[in-house]
Design brief:
By secondary structure, the protein is an alpha/beta fold. It has 13 helices and 8 strands.
Length: 299
């Protein structure tokens, strides 16, 4: 996986804890991850059969020649957002002009920020960027060392846990909405083990559907697999993350429509996360998804 057991992997936690993989007849050994880039590399190198990672990282590996294919999508859009304190007077993205923004170096957020600013009528030259460790971002904002931070649901929840009143400006609301976390594998594994891929995808989506329908079930599953997890944090992050599964006018949980992949490709190319668009016909497959009648409708 791209992450440890937490809100962003809660659907897989439900599938694992509640025996959905076992019921499907597959022996799934799910390893906690340390980032999308690592997950993509592990699958590309054959050290793992399947993975869960941000589509940005998978697309970058594909562009480099890795024979990867994305077979289902969890988050229809990126979870990246900018947070500001409510008392700052920064009440819209346009108010960021002339302000100091805290940003962790590397990762998709640093590449997508210029595009976000551009979408709001200005550029990086109109703000001051302060590079900080990701874990230090909420504290930097609370201490007013910066006027805004670039993070996600985790930084938002960290602020909330400090009872901070804050604004949350999703990148997706400014049109910077690349397809995000997806299930992927290698083309060769998919060709040789189509039924295993289908069963893993179906069981995983069943887990996400259960998490959507009953968030407490997801909190319990994460706790079962990672006893040190904080229920209040998982619960708060799920509240922010689960709506992303049906964002961008998605029709079904687990399926990003072809036009979304085209838009995402364009965004990643404009943000210079990809030197050129990847071939969607090879990078994405719908062959391993359950039939529409078995997918969770977003309508």
């Amino acid at each position: 996986m791209n992450n440890p057991w937490n809100a962003s992997t809660a659907g897989f936690a439900v599938a694992q804890a509640d025996g959905f993989y076992k019921d499907a007849g597959i022996d799934a050994k799910i390893e906690q991850g340390t980032g999308s880039g690592t997950a993509a590399q592990l699958v590309a190198s054959g050290q793992a059969d399947m993975g869960i990672a941000d589509a940005v990282a998978v697309s970058q590996q594909i562009e480099k020649g890795a024979p990867l294919v994305m077979v289902a999508t969890d988050n229809q859009v990126t979870n990246i957002a900018i947070q500001t304190l409510a008392s700052s007077g920064i009440n819209s993205p346009k108010d960021l002009k002339g302000k100091k923004i805290g940003l962790a170096e590397g990762g998709a957020w640093s590449f997508l920020l210029p595009l976000f600013l551009q979408q709001n009528g200005f550029s990086e030259n109109d703000v001051t960027i302060s590079t900080l460790p990701f874990a230090s971002l909420p504290a930097a904002l609370l201490q007013k060392n910066v006027d805004a931070i670039v993070g996600g649901q985790d930084t938002a929840v960290a602020l909330g846990m400090q009872n901070a009143q804050y604004n949350n400006f999703w990148f997706k609301d400014s049109g910077v909405s690349p397809v995000a976390h997806s299930i992927f594998t290698t083309q060769s594994f998919a060709e040789k083990n189509p039924e295993a891929v289908k069963k893993f995808v179906a069981a995983s989506l069943k887990g996400w559907n259960a998490a959507i329908d009953d968030q407490e079930r997801a909190v319990t599953a994460v706790k079962q697999l990672l006893p040190d997890s904080r229920d209040d944090v998982v619960r708060a992050e799920l509240k922010l993350l689960l709506p992303l599964m049906c964002a961008a006018d998605a029709k079904f949980v687990g399926r990003a429509e072809p036009d979304r992949w085209v838009q995402s490709n364009d965004i990643l190319t404009r943000a210079k996360l990809l030197p050129a668009p990847v071939d969607i016909s090879k990078a994405v497959s719908y062959d391993f998804l359950p039939p529409e009648s078995e997918l969770h409708s977003c309508k």
